[in-house]
Design brief:
The protein is an all-beta fold. The strands form two sheets. It has a four-stranded antiparallel beta sheet, with no helix packed on it. The chain is globular, with a radius of gyration of 16 Å. It starts with 30 loop residues before the first strand and ends in a 9-residue tail after the last strand. The model has no long low-confidence stretch (mean pLDDT 84).
Length: 117
């Protein structure tokens, strides 16, 4: 096996499969975005069904799935002070969440899908 610098035209051979893990939720749907919580304990995923799923960072078991949006979640970002999670969906809706995933505010941020925050 050659180092990645020597096979730049074959990116599929340039990652360590030792660190790749497949985990499935109850509802199998594509994951559009994944973000670690600020303390690094959980990996939050946003699905094409509009659901948040928290996964433990230790063994990648999933916690309680939360219906967060009515359409596909395209972006999530933690605020700089780690007090808010901001998410957006395919209909342009942006939502603010507390770290315990209580939804505080939702508004129409754009008339098109919001794909980055």
């Amino acid at each position: 096996v050659l180092p990645p610098a020597f096979v730049s035209d074959e990116p599929d051979t340039s990652f360590a499969t030792r660190f790749v893990y497949r985990a499935e939720n109850i509802i199998k749907s594509p994951v559009n975005v994944a973000r670690w919580t600020p303390e690094g304990r959980w990996l939050m995923t946003g699905s094409s069904h509009g659901e948040f799923t928290p996964w433990t960072g230790l063994n990648f078991k999933f916690g309680t799935t939360l219906t967060a949006h009515d359409t596909a979640i395209h972006a999530m970002k933690w605020s700089h002070d780690s007090q808010w999670l901001i998410s957006s969906d395919h209909e342009g809706v942006i939502k603010y969440w507390q770290p315990n995933l209580n939804n505080l505010k939702a508004f129409q941020g754009h008339k098109y899908p919001v794909r980055d925050l």
